[in-house]
Amino acid sequence: MASQDTRISRRTILIAGGASAGALALAGGAFWLGTSVSKTLTSGNPTQSSLPGFGIEPEILRSSGGKLTVDLVAAYSEIQIGGKPAKLKTYNGTTPGPTWMVKPGDVITVNFTNNLGEPTNLHTHGFHVSPAGNSDNVFVEVADGETFTYQYTLADNHPSAPFWYHPHHHGMAADQVFAGLYGAIVVEDTEPIPATKERVLVLSDISLQTDGNVAGANMMSKMMGREGDILLLNGQVQPSYASDQNALERWRIVNSCTSRYMKLSVPGGTATLLGKDSGRYAQPQKVTEFTLAPGNRADLLVQLGSEPVSLSYTTVPHPDAMMMGSTQTYTNYPLAQFIPGSTTAATVGALPTQTAGPDLRSEAIADARSFTLKMPNMGGMGGMGNMNGGFTINGQAFNMDVINTSVKLGTVEEWTIINDTTMDHPFHLHVWPMQVLSIGGLVVTAVEYQDVVNVPANSRSVIRVHFDKFEGNAVYHCHILDHEDQGMMGIIEANPA
């Protein structure tokens, strides 16, 4: 099996013409970064006692007796980012919002109140649940001041993996996620995986104006997909966490960035990737680095020793950076550091046998479809307002009243996602997980399931989907959320056989 990480040629867009860097920056995005924000983690070999304090992790809301009830409020809150006040959109006053910790078979009830002053809704990203009614229905609109009750019923065999929740109101998803609306969900294992400690690590980025408000996005930012100039882990700038010597930690990592591909490594530790998204690998992979597209998650085991370990980010190169006015690149930038203390962790048991899921390559397919992703042709960057074409799938921009694809329940289909553009696009299908057959022409030999699959520039990726259950309408789209908002999305209708 070829490593999927090597296939990503992030945003290899080549645009002729010229424009000033200032014209291409996030609108209003004066460089808010100060020394307290762009700080460097303690160098050398820090100890727990040498640190002023430790980072925090999101609040955990845990199910009990097969049920979890969440009161979730979306509203503006002032929080500290790198020691400075920022006005963000938050869930229950925090960014990220609380982590939902549930089990297969659980029923999750969310009393969702919108106090944002604008419409929004809620999407449980990666859940294999009904897209209809008050379940994972992204066509619901929750108006300002209203409360809507969502209810999600997890099957007894629902995948155990990290998921996340975020807004999905068309035309506003990128703005709302970028401003702080996201949170993690963990569906726990029926057979626990031994680990000294489990952590939820939510990655994001943001740009702030000098007054602490979130910077808006101009035309170029929406064209390319906005990337913030402040990198956050659990809503903090380079936090440090206490650990034990020789600990085996389990990190569930969520890439909640609106557009940024995250190339990650664990300097000082040994990393084993259990799976991506809802897919579990039959053979866990020892990795030195791995890449998460926007919306992807990773389930990672990390072996620590006696020295500090970091979760580090390296920019995935893309030649458009200069044209976009971006000079920020990162090489092994520590998003967080994990500091062993004097206590030595107890030895944990062996990793239980993992199940990857059914191999759909042996199944008869009911249909073979192609989906072509297109975006505007700039027509020269001197004319920023003269973009030709639009953000489309198969030549159609999203229309709430148009069903783009109809499938029959109980069938398996093979989809070829064709990228006719000069930048990568992460393709996301709601409700039904995708078995990845190839990415950019490179065959995936193992059984791997994801709900966000990268489609490299000027290339194609092939997936198979089993539409096993859940009648109703859902969507598929590019998970660069600015592209989704501008039309790179379609509606899929699942009907009884």
TrEMBL record:
Stored PROSITE patterns: MULTICOPPER_OXIDASE2, TAT
SUPFAM superfamilies cross-referenced by the UniProt entry: Cupredoxins
Keyword Oxidoreductase among record annotations: yes
Family matches, as InterPro entries: Cu-oxidase-like_N, Cu-oxidase_C, Cu-oxidase_fam, Cu_oxidase_Cu_BS, Cupredoxin, TAT_signal
Keywords: Membrane, Metal-binding, Oxidoreductase, Transmembrane, Transmembrane helix
Bilayer-spanning residue ranges: 12-33
Lineage top rank: taxon: Bacteria
Annotated ranges, domain Plastocyanin-like: 76-191, 385-492
GO molecular function: copper ion binding; oxidoreductase activity
Name of the featured protein: Blue copper oxidase CueO
